[in-house]
Amino acid sequence: MANISGPGPSLRSQWLGDKIRDLRKSRKMSLKEVGEYLQRDQGTISRYENGELPVRRGDLTVMLDLFGVSDEKLREDLEKIRKDSWQKDWWDQHREDLGKDFINLPWLESRANHIYAYQNMVIDGLLQTRATAEALIRNVEERTATEDQIARWINVRMDRQRILGGDEPTAFTVILEEYVIDRKVGGREVWREQLRFLHEVVQHPHIEVRVMPVESAPHSGHQGSFNLFEMPDPYPQVAYVDTLAGPLFVEQPTVERYSEVWKDLAKGALGPSESSQLIADRLEDNK
């Protein structure tokens, strides 16, 4: 499985389903045979493998026994994914508004060890002020959305930023094109507030903001913005791309291309101290 887009099951349900399918095929067993052993119909096993139906704990245990899985680490990893696929969190209440695919994003953010983001147009959502977020969301959605919907979407963006606070904040590194900090989203006052906030957050040790100077061109990021999630075991590395057709989540082996692009971007971007000074200069210019 490489690219996942369009409506469908959660990433974690798909990951578990893929593992179950691989194990079944390694034993050369049919869906019907597994279903009969579990006393489930063939369609249920198929939905398990497609990630369309959360796997019951007992069913997973029986399937792992059936497939001869004796590796305790693998069994524990699959049980962790199974449990996570059932778990609900604050973002699930927004599923109807935002769709199943987008809901994968705050889940990934909440589980990641480190998030890497490259933005060539706007400040990343995890570092936007409420006023900046509102200006961007209204620009896209105001013609078709209600005021209640817009308010909920703004709140979701703000709620996603919780991962950068608390006792165990997520490590976050972002590279912004230089013209991103010159694009006055929302007007002069809103942008001054955004630059001030950006300059403040770089003081936190788990947040690193780097600027790609305009003279560093061409580079590998010319095809667009993306986020790269370094996940804890047993989850795989995932890249996220926001497109006009909806969110796109990229896994192995394609995600390795995003890792290579990030390495190239990191070579060309200014260091954290130089970037912080550049942001301070822009803030001074916008007084």
TrEMBL record:
GO molecular function: DNA binding
PROSITE patterns: HTH_CROC1
SMART domains: HTH_XRE
Location of the HTH cro/C1-type domain: 20-74
Pfam families named among the record's database cross-references: DUF5753, HTH_31
Source organism, top-level taxon: Bacteria
Record protein name field: Helix-turn-helix domain-containing protein
Organism from which the protein derives: Glycomyces buryatensis
